[in-house]
Amino acid sequence: xxxxxxxxxxxxxxxxxxxDFEYETEISRAPFRLKNWVRYLAAKTSTNRRARNILHxxxxxxxxxxxxxxxxxxxxxxxxxEGKCITDPACQIVxxxxxxxxxDRIWPLYLEWAxxxxxxxxxxxxxxxxxxxxxxxxxxxxxxxxGKGEWEEAAHQLAICVNDxxxxxxxxxxxxxxxxxxxxxxxxxxxxxxxxxxKLADYYIRLGQFERARDVYEEGITTVITVRxxxxxxxxxxQFEESVLSAKMQLAEDxxxxxxxxxxxxxxxxLDDDADDVDLRLARLEHLLERRPLLIxxxxxxxxxxxxxxxxxxxxxxxxxxxxxxxxxxYADAVKAISPKLAVGxxxxxxxxxxxxxxxxxxxxxxxxxFEKALLPTYRNVDDLASxxxxxxxxxxxxxxxxxxxxxxQRATTGKRGWPPEAAVxxxxxxxxxxxxxxxxxxxxxxxxxxxxxxxxxxxTYLDLEESLGTPETTRAAYDRAMELRxxxxxxxLNYATFLEEHRYFEESFAVYEKGVGLFAFPYVK
Length: 526
Description:
Subcellular location: Nucleus
Shape: elongated
CATH class of the domain at 4-163: Mainly Alpha
Largest sheet: none
Organism: Tribonema minus
Domain Pre-mRNA-splicing factor Syf1/CRNKL1-like C-terminal HAT-repeats: 340-525
Distance between the termini: 103 Å
Radius of gyration: 42 Å
Strand content: under 5%
GO biological process, one term: generation of catalytic spliceosome for first transesterification step
InterPro entries: HAT, HAT_Syf1-like_N, HAT_Syf1_central, HAT_Syf1_CNRKL1_C, Syf1-like, TPR-like_helical_dom_sf
Number of helices: 27
């Protein structure tokens, strides 16, 4: 089919003949009258084949269902390729012309057949060929793809709609409604989210709406949940900003040249405005590149908000950037977002680092508040809570608050209610509330706050503090309690015996050795 420019040139050539003016006048008055076109074609029997093809195309544009015009046109097309090889491009043109002639009759039936046979690949191939001749029905193809779960191909077809300047569908959608189409695709085509965000932004760029495109990019990089999609959108965003900056710089350079040529005019103000605009664009690009690590961090946390390591990396980014307030907000968001049962990594370490952050900035009150709150989460194991108790005591020791450090560990070893929770379980067992097996199971399923009093780590720290800060009586009571609860290690027993010897309690020291022999079996005791 000739192009519009070629057709225009041929029409001008036809009009050069004065005898054609009469026919052109009749056609302009009644283009849908078949008789006018037939008379015109009959008058041009001796003209060249290209001119007659253009006349036929013009006639069929107004009368696409005329059997007489199509039959005459196709007959002439066939005679033109008679004797040529089937691979000749002219033969393909004839095939295309036949398909166009049969379009409205054949294609609806062909498509229904292709969809009905149940072979997805066949239907897709038929649809693709159909769209070569009637691209306006691309949305119909997209609906079929959605029903078959072909999300990638559907996204590709939507992108074609975006890039088509003249796109208008039979359903009444235009390119100006593409935003809604692509946004609906974002929730359906999860594997193509990054590409769809880029296509949506590119749509607004083509319309010259740069700020709207920038908003789309920002929305994209702050909502995607995979690094692959983020990288795709971010790279497109940065390239867009670089291209805008380059264009502004080129305009500024052109302005400088014009200003030199037009000395003595009022162009200085315009040049200053261009320079300011370039500075603004440059600052915007630099800010975008600086945000990349934080944006990637946000993507990873949207994937899994319970990832302790990613929260720690995010805090480090703010600390490195000299933004302590943002670091504190990040710590607060982290401990609020992470579920202790779903945490990836040590949640207790995050709480301890949070408290130390306040400590490093001289805020002892808030550090203590954080430590107190860190004692409340239901950690997955007792050792995590024990680590918090020990870090709390170490914090008090670093600031010479020895009495407070001792009180912290006393709280840890007596349970949050002031008495060992095991006593209540045992009381219920003795009164018929539990059997021995169910009592043990109840203790294992109880919160870590009810079990931390039997942590070896907690008792080791507590006994060291009692030896250093307590009296001989309180130290002896602490060691006795540890052995009674059977949480004492061989090292604790030896330390207790040595402590008694140093304070000249020789008989008591010997008794401790005997009790220790009863607590441990081989290989600790031979």
